[in-house]
Every structure is written in structure tokens, then in C-alpha cells.
Amino acid sequence: MDLFEKLQNDRGPLGKHSSIAHGYFAFPKLEGAISPHMKFRGKDVLNWSLNNYIGLANHPEVREADAQGAADYGLAYPMGARMMSGNSNLIETFENQLASFMGKEDAMVLNFGYQGIMSIIDALLDRHDIVIYDSESHACIIDGVRLHMGKRLVFPHNDIDNLKMQLERANKMIDPTKGSILVITEGVFGMAGDMGRLKEIVELKNKYSFRLLIDDAHGFGTMGKTGAGAAEEQGVQDGVDIYFSTFAKSMASIGAFVASKENVIEYLKYNTRSQIFAKTLPMPLVIGNMKRLELLKSQPELRSKLWDVVKALQNGLKEKGFNIGRTESPVTPVFLSGTEMEAAQMIIDLRENYGIFCSIVIYPVVPKGVMMLRLIPTAEHSLADVERTIKAFSDIAEKLKNGAYSKSLTNMPV
Prior knowledge:
Blueprint: H1 3-9, H2 18-21, E1 30-31, E2 37-40, E3 43-47, H3 60-73, H4 89-102, E4 106-110, H5 113-124, E5 130-134, H6 139-146, E6 151-155, H7 160-173, E7 181-186, H8 198-203, E8 211-215, H9 230-233, E9 242-246, E10 256-260, H10 262-271, H11 273-276, H12 283-298, H13 300-319, E11 332-337, H14 340-353, E12 356-357, E13 359-361, E14 370-375, H15 383-401
Parallel strand pairs: 3-12, 5-6, 5-7, 7-8, 8-9
Antiparallel strand pairs: 1-2, 2-3, 4-10, 9-10, 11-14, 13-14
Helix pairs in contact: 3-12, 4-12, 5-6, 13-15, 14-15
């Protein structure tokens, strides 16, 4: 079969809906300055779908740093892969700042998060090693695990008893003279908003021999006394052997970092293929990210304001009877029951008639018959935004219950 014919015949689980979804449910275009209030298809909407957790995207000091970095260096410098010609004093200074903030010996800045953690997993493991990972890990972790040529074991989400079983299996399977065990989980799971059971996992080190890698993309900057993430929140920062996070959430930027022992970071610098064979992070982003980290550390009131909004939103939804699952973080899922068609009609109503934009998740990400509205509160949202949203959600839930969304997609906007 011709490759292009094969692709045309099988568009994939998401791509098969592209003729209806594109531009509205998938690949929507939000316009205007990043804020809770933007435009969608020419209409003003209240936006709950941006990861600008502590409001740094348009912070005046951040905008000034971004602009000055671009003016001083342009977007090209440093040119080339970092190992060959793209290193700089500023990148190394930034790495030292990240390591200090995370309480680790060293850190490495990465040009992208998704490719970064995939390549880190690939670099850490060889065919003699065994990796054990949480079943609800982000796609970047799953793809990284797929690169591993050795044994792969999975435990049901946050099931510590099952993790113990997998550790028992791994210890029986492994050759201790050649192989090691790596456990991977997340600090905050980005869909449901619950935390990985880091404290309980760290405690298992008293009985089992393994290292722990966490992806804390949604925890960094939002969780913990200083904003250092989910491990700080649970009091086990020292028990996390390799800490990874992206700058794309609380920092509202591009890039990522990994922090660990000095010898581990040195190893990763020389073995992480997505960094060795790719251009380094442009200097304006390094400078802008340094300013973001400075504000994250020096202005805890930004995180406090975020949590004021989070608590108002989550408590208000629960008071109205909504199921927000097991979230322990700003990530706020709202679970409803209905078909894919009802989900589509409901989101159209929410956007077109209530002026509220949020993401909707359906099968295969969640089980059939379940729809999940996913809200990302930020420090920039107001309590009035919260009140308006809860009122709208109450309305659409009543319509869903009464069958108002069970019709065909005759109301699809053009």
C-alpha cells in the first residue's frame, strides 16, 4: 500500500474528526494579549485554557526583559548546538540559579520540555535497566519509555501497593551487576490535577533499590512553600533523585530544565541526544526565563493570588454539586456524563452563548460516556470571573440533564 493512501484511510483517533473539529474544537485560535479575556473567532471570551498560572506572561518586568534580551542578542545567539558552539555564561548562571532554587547540586537547561524528558529517559537507561512508571504519565514520558530497549513495567495510577509488586518483580528480574531500576511519575498530573504519591514512593527506598525521576510541569511554581513544586509540598525534595520541569506552565515561556546531582547532570549534558543534536535555547528566552524565575522566587503574592482563585473556583463548583475528581492542584477538571455529540453541542453553547472558553476532553483520553471540562485558573483571573463561570456551568449542566444537547450538530458555527 502507498504510504499516503494508508494515511488517508486511517486518520488516527483524533484526526478522524478533523473535518468537523479543525479550527473550533482542535487548533482553535485565541487572539489578543495573553489574559483571562481574549477573542475567539471575533468574540470576547473568558479564557480558562492557558497555563499562565502565576500571571507572568504579560508581567511588565518580564515583557521588558524579553524585549531587552531580543534587542541585545537577537534570536540567533548562541548559534548552534550547545556542545559545539552554543554555550554561554548566562545559560550556566541560569542553571546555577535553578539548581539552588531546587536544592540540587546542578541543573541543565533544555530547549524543549517534551523532547527533553524523552531524551533524558533514553540517556539514563540501557537494555539492562528496568523502568517502572505510572499508568497516567504524560505522553512525553510514555514516548520516552518506548525508546527504552530493556524491561518496562507499569503500575496503576498512584497505586503504591502495585508499585511495590512491580519493584519486587524488577528486583527478581534484574542482574544487579549490570542493571538498575528507575521509577518515573509526575509531581502533578496535568489532566486530573492530583499529585503523585511522592512521599510514599520515597519511603519505599528504605526497602527497595531504585532511583526516582519526576516530571513536575504543573507543580513547579504552583506547589510548595516556595513554589519549588510537588516534592516540596510533600516534604520529600531530597528524596527525588532527578527533578524535571518545563518553563511552559508557571513560567509562561519555552524551554525546560532537569536538576540532580552534579555527576548526573554532567552525564546528561554529554548523552541527552535532543540537546546534543539541536540548537541551544536562544538568549532572549534564557534572559526572559531568568527574570521569570526571579519573580517566581521574590513575589510569593503571585502564587497566593493564584490559590485564592483556585479555592474560590473549586469550592464553588463543589458547592454546586459538580464532580471535580481528585485534584490537589490548580488544575480543575469538571466531569460530566454524555456522548461525544452532546460534548460538542455543549462546548459550542458554552463558547457562543456564554462567552466562556475552556478545553473539553473526551474518549479516548477519558472513558466512553465521560466528558471532562478542564479549567486552568491563574493569578490573573478575578473572583467575578469565577462567579460567572460557575453560573454558566450550572446552566449547561441543567441543559445536559434535560437532553438539550442530544440533537445533531446543526448548530455548528461556520
